[in-house]
Amino acid sequence: PYARLDPTSAHFRSLRSTPARERDKAIAFTEQVWELAYALEKRVQLPPVDLPGFSGGEVQHENFPTDPKEAARALRMHWGLGSGPIPRMVRVMENHGIVVTLAPFAGAATPTVDAFSTSHLPRPVVVLTPDRAQDVYRHRFTAAHELGHLLLHAETAPGDLAQEKEADMFAAELLTPGKVIVPELPPRMDLHALDRIGTAWGVSVESLVYRCHEVGTISEATYRRTFVR
Questions:
Q1: For 43, which DSSP code?
Q2: Which residue from 192, 199, 149 is spatially nearest to 174, judged by alpha carbons?
Q3: Whole-model pTM?
Q4: d(CA 134, CA 152)
Q5: Dihedral sign (CA 226, 181, 63, 148)
C-alpha cells in the first residue's frame, strides 16, 4: 500500500520557515520510508510498536501522564530503562518499534526542514537531519525531543511554541531524570564539572546549564552570562 501523509500531520518545528518545496520533499521521503519498512516486514520481523497509547496510526491516552516530565518518567518505567544514563537513544527507540532515519537533505535545506516526526502512519517515524547527527549530544536530544512529540502530541500543531517547549522538557527529563541528576549538579556554576557530568549522561553542557537554572542552583544573571561564555 502507498502511504499518504498530510504535512499538518508531522511535527515540523516551523511551517513558516520551511519552504513548501522542501516540506513536500520531506513528507514524500517519510512516506517512502514507511513503504520500505512495510516491504521489509514481509521478510524480516521488526520489533512491535511499543509506544503507550499508539495503535494503527493514532495515539490515544487514557491512563498515561500528559505532563512532559511525568510522561518521561512513566516511559522510562514502561520501557524498563531504570534511572541511569541511556547509552543509545536511537537504538532504544528502534527496539520499541519506532522507525528512525536520517533525511538525505543537505546544504541550505537542512536547517529549514530540521528534524520532524509523525505518529499518523502504521509505524511512528522520526526523521533526523545530518547536521544534528554530527554532534552526538544534539542527535540524542533531538531524538528524545521527537519521541516526546510522538507520545504527547497526537494533535499536531507544527511550530507551536508550547508543544516545542513540552517536547524539550520531556527530552531533558528522559535523558537526565531530575531526582538523579539534580544531586549531581555543582552548587555553583562550574563548566568543567558540568562537562564531566554531561559526558557521563550523554547530554550537552548547555542542557545541564538549563537544568541548573531550572532547579535554582544558579541565578538568572549567571544563567545568561554562562550562555554568553
A1: T
A2: 149
A3: 0.88
A4: 27
A5: positive
Structure confidence at residue 107 (pLDDT): 47
Average pLDDT, the chain: 85
Q: Which helix (H) or strand (E) holds 138?
A: helix 136-152
In this structure, are residues 128 and 102 in contact, taking their beta carbons and an 8 Å threshold? Answer: yes
* pLDDT for 14: 53
Q: Say how many Å lie between the first and final Cα of the chain, rounded.
A: 52
Mean pLDDT of 120-142: 86
Buried b (16+ CB within 10 A) or exposed e, 14-38: eeeebeeebbebbbebbbebbeebb
What's the CA gap between 156 and 140, in Å, rounded? 22
Q: How far apart are CA 153 and CA 168, in angstroms?
A: 13
Q: What is the DSSP code (8-state) at residue 48?
A: P
State mean pLDDT over 178-189: 92
φ/ψ of 194, rounded to 5, equals -65, -35
| Interaxial angle between packed helices 136-152 and 68-78, expressed in degrees from 0 to 180 and rounded to the nearest 10 | 100
The residues that bridge with 126 in the sheet, in sequence order, are 100, 117
3-state secondary structure of 160: coil
- d(Cα 138, Cα 44) in Å, to the nearest integer? 31
Query: Residues 129, 102: contact at Cβ < 8 Å?
Result: yes
Predicted pLDDT at 106: 47
* 109-148 residues labelled b (16+ CB within 10 A) or e (exposed): bbebbbbbbbbbbbbbbbbbbebbbeeebbbbbbbbbbbb
**For the chain, how big is the Rg over CA atoms in Å?**
18
What CA–CA distances, in Å, run from 16 to 20, 22, 29, 214? Answer: 9, 12, 20, 30
Task: Tell whether the model's pLDDT for residue 11 goes beyond 70.
Answer: no
